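User: Hey, quick favor. My workstation is busy. Could you predict this chain's structure for me?
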Amino acid sequence: MSHGDITHVEIPVSDFSAATQFYGAVFGWNIAESPGFEGYPMWRAPNGISGGALVERTAEFTQPRSAVEVDSIDETLARAESSGGRVRTPKTAITDTSWWAVFEDPDGNLIEVYESAA
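Assistant: No problem, here it is.
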């Protein structure tokens, strides 16, 4: 079964600089690009536990999305499909030891899932 922990939140923005200033001022987030993730500024909350990224706003990406950590993306996507959902982005490598995917629930909500080999 899956972990079920929310591990990451992506916020679509039109202006990375303005959004970095806004969320830094409002929540105290430290927002910076990480090596290997250029164009994907990531934030870390002051508690050091929660985090996410600012992503380019597109026609399909207009609302924040949370990533849920799972033990197996393949099994989770299969359960989502057999329960009435559909895969929108198949299992995709982030690094050599982590992957992500996106499925749509029956109400049209997009849910990201994350799997780490660690």
